[in-house]
Design a protein that fits this description.
The chain is an alpha+beta fold. The chain has 7 helices and 24 strands. The chain has a 6-stranded antiparallel beta sheet with strand order 1-15-9-12-13-14, with no helix packed on it. It has a 6-stranded antiparallel beta sheet with strand order 19-24-20-21-22-23.
């Protein structure tokens, strides 16, 4: 199952001397309302062990003491279920469900009951069957299976290459503060990353690595996510249908049809290295994907697009022509405007065709 639900960063605190005892409730602090998953603070190990013996659960101590290299954290658990299990409002399978704990989710254990466990996963809090969780020593051993790794760029511009080392070819560039998924183990200080639809490598000298977990979601969060997915799917279907009007009887495409199609994606996000018209594209990825819809193949970068088709002057520009700048490209709409993937702040939108010096105008139809 794809990880389409809520993902939050979690800090694995080194909490010494903590234990969760079946049937006992732990009072969890609000962690200053910072939005992080709070971790339970507890008293010294001697007093806790004494209470364990008093309640005759000494044989279960190893189940709830989870050692890690950083210390001991014992209120972390991971889902052991199919696609998901319901998080319920009460420890009863007939109670209302308030959220879902997915198969790749982490959770904070709040209370152990007979056959049920109270958890908090993301914003969802409630009860799940005890057998749907991995806890204790097994959770410690399997924690890495549930980890998500990302890197955040610390340089103003960082090359993404097709291999490890500065001798490898450059595929694209990423910018300061941008975060990307790490797709495998680092090799000789280089991290494999996914940038849009591009798989490449970045130097570990210019990124910081972070580890996070995925969490469940509340019923309300799921409803909002599904509505957004349905909206995007409807936009894609509408775009497919509307584009057909731009095909001439002889099978050729009109420039105005290209513009009409491109404008349906105004307001969608800008993503460096991306080529998705709905989920995000950069300037050349946007132009490439718009034309790909009409069966016209264009190069991936502006440096190659400057040689596509044939040159015309700006005075001769028609809708659908490529307007190229130093490191940027847009589609001419007519009346001195272009539609283009502008930047992260503005996304896909319209601006003046002469906002800066034009390097070339290329006609590809």
């Amino acid at each position: 199952m794809d990880k389409t639900h809520i993902k939050q960063k979690v800090i694995l605190s080194a909490v010494a001397g903590m234990i969760l005892v079946p049937g006992r409730v732990l009072d969890v602090p609000a962690a200053g309302k910072t939005g992080e998953q709070p971790f339970v603070q507890a008293s010294g190990i001697e007093s806790v062990l004494e209470k364990c013996y008093e309640t005759e659960v000494k044989d279960n101590i190893n189940l709830y003491l989870v050692p890690t290299e950083e210390g001991e954290y014992l209120n972390m658990a991971f889902s052991d279920t199919g696609d998901y299990t319901y998080i319920r409002s009460a420890p009863d399978e007939n109670s209302d469900w308030v959220g879902k704990l997915y198969q790749d989710s982490a959770a904070q254990v709040l209370e152990y009951l007979d056959g049920w466990t109270k958890v908090r996963s993301g914003s969802a809090e409630g009860y799940v069957p005890a057998d749907s969780l991995i806890t204790g020593g097994e959770a410690s051993l399997r924690a890495e299976e549930f980890e998500d790794h990302t890197v955040t760029v610390t340089a103003y511009a960082l090359n993404v290459r097709d291999g490890q080392g500065t001798g490898a070819d450059i595929l694209t560039q990423v910018g300061l503060g941008e975060t990307y998924e790490v797709t495998g183990d680092p090799v000789d200080g280089w991290y494999p990353v996914k940038v849009g639809e591009i798989d490449g490598w970045v130097s570990g000298n210019y990124v910081t690595e972070e580890t996070s977990y995925s969490y469940g979601e509340t019923k309300e969060e799921e409803e909002a996510r599904l509505e957004e997915e349905a909206r995007r799917a409807e936009e894609a279907r509408a775009a497919e249908t509307g584009a057909a009007a731009g095909i001439l009887p002889g099978g050729s495409v009109t420039g105005q049809a290209v513009i009409d199609y491109a404008c349906q994606f105004i307001g969608n996000p800008y993503v460096w290295g991306g080529t998705s018209l709905t989920d995000g594209a950069d300037c050349s990825g946007f132009v490439q994907s718009v034309y790909a819809h009409f069966g016209v193949s264009l190069p991936r970068t502006t440096y190659e697009m400057v040689n596509s088709g044939y040159a015309v002057s700006y005075a001769e520009a028609l809708p659908g022509d490529l307007i190229l700048y130093d490191g940027h490209v847009g589609l001419y709409m007519g009346d001195g405007t272009i539609v283009n993937a502008m930047n992260e702040a503005d996304g896909i939108g319209i601006c003046s065709a002469t906002y800066t010096n034009i390097i070339a105008v290329r006609r590809v139809l």
